[in-house]
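Table S2 (text version). Query chain:
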Amino acid sequence: MAWDEWEQLKAKAAQNQSARMQLNHVTPDNGGGESTRGDLTVHQEDLSAIGSAAHELRQDFSRFSDHARMSSIKAAGGLKTEGFDIGAALDHVAERWVDQVQSLLDACAHISNHLRYTENQHAADESYIAGTLSSISQLDQGFDERKGS
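Corresponding C-alpha cell output:
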C-alpha cells in the first residue's frame, strides 16, 4: 500500500465518522413534535375488565370443553365397539384434547390471578403514596406553624 493511498483512506474514514450511528442516544424529538419516550399507563378498570374476561373464559370453556370431550369419548367407544379403527384414533384425540384444555384453563387462571394481584398491589401502592404525601404535608404544616407563618 502506498503512502498516498493510506492518507486517502484515513481522510475518507474521518469524513464518514461524523455520519456514523450512535447507539447510546435517543433523539429528543422524532420529527413530529412528540417525545420518543413512552410511559406505561394502567387503569384499574382495564385490569379488572381483562381479569374478569379471563375468569369468564375459563369458566365457560371448562364447561363447554367437557361437553366436547364427553361426546368424543362416547363416539370413540361406539366406533371401537363396531370394529372401526378410527374409534381408537378419536379416543387418542379426546385424550390430547384434555391436555390442551387444561393448558388453556391454566393460562386463563394465571392471567386472571395475576391481574387481580396487580390491581390489589396498585391499590396498596396508591394508599402508601397517599399516606406518605399526607405525612409530608403535615410535617410542612408543623414547620410553618413553628416559624409563625
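Notes on Table S2: Residues 41-147 form one domain. The mean pLDDT is 78.
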